[in-house]
Amino acid sequence: MKPCNLGLFLMSAVLILSGCSPLKTAINPYEEDFKCRAADDTGKCVDTPKAYKEARYPDTAKEKTTADPDQQAPGNRYKLLAGLLEEGKKPLLQPPKILRVLLLPYRGENDELFMTRYVYLKIEESQWILTDINEK
Hints:
two-stranded antiparallel sheet, flat
């Protein structure tokens, strides 16, 4: 490229990228000066990542901490359990443990076709925990 052509090319690139060109309106015809018009009682104006974080982890949004909510979750569960243990006698029912088994398609004894399906098996019964019942 000739130095003159290179200079012209660089100048046009700077104009296009800086937004000082009519080409900008041809590429993006929409207004870019978005102003939030939400009233105080209807919500707030935040960017998408912040809105997601506030919706997914409402407690951490109020605290304004920079810690990762996924790392705080186990600690919060332990605090909740410790609070239950200290609170007094409050029985809890531990749910049963269910195992989901996938059965793949197979042919039966009389040439029947059994299609893919799930079978649910109870492998452990539910039980009461945090009670005064003495098991024998």
